Amino acid sequence: MRAPSGYLLAARYRLFEPVGRGGMGTVWRAHDELLDREVAVKEVRLPLVLDEDLRAELCVRTEREGRATAMVAHPSVITVFDVVTEDERPWIVMELLRARSLEQLLQDRGPLPPREAAEIGRQVLGALRAVHAKGILHRDVKPSNVLVTNERAVLTDFGLAALEGDVSITQAGIVLGSAGYIAPERVLGAKATPSADLWSLGATLYTAVEGRGLHGRRTAAAALAALTSGEPIPMEKAGPLTPVLRGLLMIDPAARLDAVRASMMLARVAAGGVAEEPLSRPTGRAVRNPAMISVPSFNRRPQHRGLHRAGSTPVSAPAPVAPPPSPMPQPRMHRRPTEGVHRKPVERAPEPHPFMRFVTPLIRLVLPRLLWPRELRKRG
To answer: Is 142 annotated as a binding residue?
Structure first.
């Protein structure tokens, strides 16, 4: 039973009006009376075929994964404020965004250009990588769960995702999600993996760029039958986004495009390039000839090992090749006019004064050597 307008949840959150409805719940615009702020409250409605024990188990699991999602800090992940269990069902309190869903955007504008779709996919893939790193799987990626604002794209509705992945749900034969956006392995009953979220992202981007669902099927079984029939996926408007979509929509999870490579390819398309960058040699650099590169030998026994032993025959080394004789320089017969000009000329000692030539013998005879003038001591 759906809660009425004006309902007070957990004596704190006042429900005003629904802002979105789905097969598994309703999103309300509400007011947090404790912190005086507007919030969004997700009212999760569990399938009626579940017994009370399974419903109680799913409520506990929803609370646990909702709190784990609240620890993920990423601009493309909806912020979860609180998880409440009331009236035997979980309620998820989230931030309220003034945005349109990707589904509403496609209804208003039609198919998106490949660059715009690639940018939305790049941000949503960043959100998936952030929650996968925490061990959380979304399991319900589709256009109605992607909110688009002027600044960012945000992945929402983690409360519904928390209901999938339990063994008891698989045994009950229940597959939660939307037809056309459920990975083929999940339709066949396999356990949900991060690769399944990537397939759902590929189906979401296909709808965004082509303007229609994958194969136009209304049920998951019909979509799976179309995928396994071998028919090529028609892509008329994908353009540079085609390699990314083909890689994400591979039926075999092992052959599917991984998150790291898909993020790089989406970033290239969003920047105006192509998904697959060609490998080219850098220009302006000389490339060495492989034949000129000598490869060292890694044999454990070198050729000279054991030559010192008696009776061993030495291995003659190849004779060195003598360089060609160079022409002998011819002797020069005369000196060049400019040769030696750069050298410093030798300074000649100045001639002694005539008076000094007369006094010198007298000084040597009368005075001791220590009292002689410096010039006289130098001459000895």
So the answer is: no
Helix (H) or strand (E) holding 374: helix 374-379
Give the lowest-confidence range in 105-109, 172-176, 347-351, 361-365.
Answer: 172-176
Token pair, residue 51, equals 């017994």
| Continuous H helices in 211-353 | 220-228, 242-248, 259-270
Strand ranges of the sheet holding 89-95, from the earlier edge strand across to the other edge: 8-9, 13-22, 25-32, 37-44, 89-95, 80-86
Residue ranges of domains in the chain: 13-270
Active-site residue (options: 36, 51, 87, 140):
140
* H or E segment to which residue 272 belongs: none
- Give the whole-number percent of the chain exceeding pLDDT 90: 34
Q: Is 140 a catalytic residue?
A: yes
In the predicted model, is pLDDT for residue 251 greater than 80? yes
CATH number assigned to the domain covering 13-270: 1.10.510.10
pLDDT at 102 over 90: yes
Q: At 17, phi and psi to the nearest 5? A: -150, 150
